[in-house]
Amino acid sequence: MSNHYDLIIVGGGIGGSALAVTMAKAGSKVLLLEKSTVFEDQVRGEWIAPWGVVETQRVGLYDLLRAAGGHHLKTHVTYDETRSIEESEAVAMPLDVMLPNVAGPLCIGHPHHCQTLFDEAGRHGVTALRGVEVNAIELGANPSVTYVHNNMQSSATARLVIGADGRSSATRSAAGITLHQNKPHHMFGGMLVEGAKGWNDTKQAIGTEGDFAFLAFPQGDGRVRIYGSYSLDDRRRFAGEDGAANFLAAFRMNCSPENRHLADGKQAGPLRSYFNNDAWTDEPFAEGAVLVGDAAGWNDPIVGQGLSITYRDVRIVSELLNGATDWTPALFAPYAEERCERMRRLRFAAELTSVLDAEFSDEARARRASYHARSIADPMLGAHAGAVMVGPEMLPPEVFTPEHRTRVLEG
């Protein structure tokens, strides 16, 4: 069997497998290398924003995800200790009218999502290997990857190596691409619960009360992925044997009584807590390599853009590759330019959201109360939040400026 490919994709998660499927359908010969033998729950994103759903449609994977159990959400509610339940629910946001032909955000369990795409890659003729240890990535005009699979070392060459190998990307290191990161603002934890039958399966919600902010994204049939934001100063708050129980207890809030269904749910996956922050690259490509997904930089998970970012990366890179015969670095300049501005805008939205939703002082409560009251009269105050639903490019540039930030936070 020939060891030369059009593409070697390092990382068989969502971005790598989605790109493998897309390129194989177009006739490329693809080698897909995945380190894990089983996709496990690592508390990764399971929510695709409406603009990300459009990207799944454009790369021809939406129907596959729906058939695999993808679950649409219809309504968003923001709860807050500074206003009544009735006030919060009176301004609920419909999610199924955000973009044409999109029934709302799409939720699908992360391990199942990965496996669905990996299996689809194999069905389309991709050489898809699991349990792979990548030993060396050589880039330049004639890129190659050396790896161990089934205790046998092999080397393969390709026209191009795709780095879809996550935050600690070996491909990014091999390419010498610099990763920029900002400082974390707070801690962010997540867990899957089941048995939350009383929670509306089509309603997502966020809310802040006391020293905790919650997010809830149902997956259907009583399963809900829940997240919580809390202070960096209290980073071990949910550590230890009682961590999961304490995490669930934090969801009991007066401002959102239905949270009791979440708190009473059964832990169905690991609890993971981590620093929230953004990371980005100026140019997610080099001679012989292109980065997609987290390998190219990620957005603070407080606004849940990871999967949408990845699917757009897949769509843009595949369109560029399929539209050209010359795969030299200059081909990917439009990708770098679009992604740079996309991530800047999403970084702005995440930073503003963190200040509004995940600060817990008296001053922060007063700021939220002012913001909620003013945004009813002036919906443009919440335009940064709209960007995470319809796509950052859909909002005017002035939304992503210091002036807008001042107007939102200071009135």
Would you mind describing this structure in some detail?
- With 411 residues, the chain is α+β, with helices and mostly antiparallel strands.
- The protein folds into two domains: 4-44 and 110-179 and 284-344, FAD/NAD(P)-binding domain; 71-107 and 186-275, D-Amino Acid Oxidase, subunit A, domain 2 (D-Amino Acid Oxidase, Chain A, domain 2, 2-Layer Sandwich), CATH 3.30.9.10.
- It has helices at 14-25, 50-58, 62-67, 85-90, 110-123, 170-175, 243-249, 260-263, 306-322, 333-357, 362-377, 383-390, 402-410, and strands at 4-10, 30-33, 47-48, 71-72, 75-80, 93-94, 106-107, 127-129, 133-138, 144-149, 152-163, 180-181, 187-194, 203-209, 212-220, 223-230, 266-267, 272-275, 279-280, 285-286, 289-291.
- Strands 1, 2, 8, 9, 10, 11, 20 and 21 form an eight-stranded mixed beta sheet that branches. Strands 5, 6, 13, 14, 15, 16, 17 and 18 form an eight-stranded mixed beta sheet that branches. A three-stranded antiparallel beta sheet has the order 3-7-4.
- A hairpin with a 2-residue loop joins strand 14 and strand 15.
- Helix 1 packs parallel to helix 5, helix 2 packs parallel to helix 9 and helix 10 (333-357) crosses helix 12 (383-390).
- The longest helix is centred in the C-terminal third of the chain and has 25 residues, at 333-357.
- The chain is globular and about 65 Å long.
- The mean pLDDT is 96.
